[in-house]
Amino acid sequence: MTLISDVITDGNGLDFNFCRVVNNEERRSLIDLVQLLDQMSPLGEGEDKIKCKFAATNHFSAKECYLESAREVIKTWERPPLYGRPTMIWKLISFAIWWSVWLSRNECAFNSKEVLLDDLICKAKGHMFLWGVRGEVFRGYCFLDLLNNWEALMSG
Prior knowledge:
Layout: H1 4-7, H2 24-39, H3 62-67, H4 70-76, H5 85-111, H6 117-134, H7 143-148, H8 150-154
């Protein structure tokens, strides 16, 4: 694993030093990453610290997970600055994830079924779509758009 300090050059540029040739799709993703990083404020000096927004002490512990309700956790879910359809979709995401995890957990516990991450994601998107269709969140889109073209839906 490479440290950030190994990637940042003296002039604050980035040197990823890949071991192989980057293909076109990876190159586009890398350009998007660099543009996103350019928008961020500079890193401060010192060690990184992990903070937990829903913990009273700001440090994560398993005990804290049992003391916060699902509602409190959802409240701490950071919402990016979105407008229009993406805002409506974002409001559905956390509930769809929680509901899908709950149902999948029951499948594992009571029916001894294995749940794969891709299936869990598909179920969460299915719940989002069904709930969003009633509110016309997905007007002009079909479920396959939600499954396969997430970026287009979230771009507005």
